[in-house]
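can u do me a favor
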């Protein structure tokens, strides 16, 4: 069952926003990165190919891809919690923010040329085989279809060949100009968000006789309890903690320690109390563990290389974990 906010289906809204933002992100990347054409030094040709043609072709590819699988993407978002239980629902937004950041910066630019070639070939295939819905159907494909697919793929192949040799430039830009400068802010956002959610979870632990029961309510769409007051409190706490962190107020370290302790309590109670009541209960122990390592790297190791190592890799693991779960759900969705 889809979640709705004032009659708006959340999953459909997210897909719609993605359809709008992905082309914008592609145009931004190809106009900000200083790509050069390996086969020409002509500035006009560089402008046409790098700044206009490539982002246009890649944007059209992603638009077609998103529209082609629009229902599957929406169903994936609806079925996410029911498909796999490694990500705790209370930390879903925490994991999601990290995943989106990694996805947009590291994964999207790399797979875009491949997606583009496949999508343009798919367009030609669909235009010449109206009766077929899937490439792997047993009926033979005519030579005309193969020729049209090859012709349609020429432009995206040309665009891909134009930018692939410069992907080291893109990697350098994404790492040095985006990832490293934004990493401290991502840490601040993640720490603040995590701590706010941990406090909200602990309050529900006290009010609802165990966070495990609340987790089950949250995942089960048939339950009507929404706990809007706790959500509002978490939003306010998140803003407050973020203000303290960015302002470098020392008291924020105390709140981070509290969040670290509370998430340990929450995960333990969630596991034992949930399992004692419902054998099939989703304990999310691994998801809580990764989150605890992330916040613990700042609390237990405030300085040194070990702290930086744990912070970066727990952040990456949490993002990769979320992405894997999402794609698993996507391929399982109908």
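np, heres the sequence
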């Amino acid at each position: 069952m889809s979640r709705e906010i004032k009659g708006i289906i959340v999953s459909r809204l997210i897909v719609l926003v993605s359809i709008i933002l992905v082309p914008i992100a592609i145009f931004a990347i190809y106009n900000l990165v200083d790509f050069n054409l390996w086969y020409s030094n002509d500035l006009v040709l560089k402008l046409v190919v790098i700044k206009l043609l490539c982002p246009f072709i890649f944007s059209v590819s992603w638009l077609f891809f998103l529209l082609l699988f629009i229902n599957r993407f929406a169903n994936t978002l609806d079925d996410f919690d029911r498909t796999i239980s490694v990500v705790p629902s209370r930390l879903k937004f925490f994991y999601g923010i990290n995943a989106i950041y990694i996805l947009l910066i590291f994964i999207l630019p790399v797979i875009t040329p491949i997606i583009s070639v496949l999508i343009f070939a798919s367009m030609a295939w669909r235009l010449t085989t109206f009766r077929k819905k899937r490439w792997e159907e047993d009926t033979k494909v005519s030579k005309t279809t193969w020729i049209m697919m090859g012709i349609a793929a020429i432009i995206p192949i040309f665009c891909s060949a134009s930018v692939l040799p410069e992907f080291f430039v893109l990697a350098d830009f994404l790492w040095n100009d985006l990832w490293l400068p934004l990493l401290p802010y991502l840490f601040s956002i993640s720490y603040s968000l995590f701590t706010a959610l941990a406090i909200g979870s602990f309050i529900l632990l006290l009010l609802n006789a165990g966070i495990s029961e609340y987790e089950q309510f949250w995942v089960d769409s048939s339950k009507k309890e929404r706990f809007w007051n706790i959500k509002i409190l978490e939003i306010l706490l998140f803003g407050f903690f973020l203000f303290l962190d960015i302002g470098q107020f020392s008291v924020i370290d105390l709140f981070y320690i509290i969040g670290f302790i509370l998430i340990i309590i929450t995960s333990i109670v969630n596991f034992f109390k949930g399992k004692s009541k419902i054998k099939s209960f989703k304990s999310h122990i691994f998801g809580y563990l990764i989150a605890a390592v992330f916040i613990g790297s700042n609390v237990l190791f405030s300085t040194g290389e070990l702290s930086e190592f744990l912070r970066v890799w727990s952040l990456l693991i949490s993002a990769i974990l979320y992405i894997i779960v999402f794609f698993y759900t996507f391929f399982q969705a109908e």
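The radius of gyration is 23 Å. hope that helps!!
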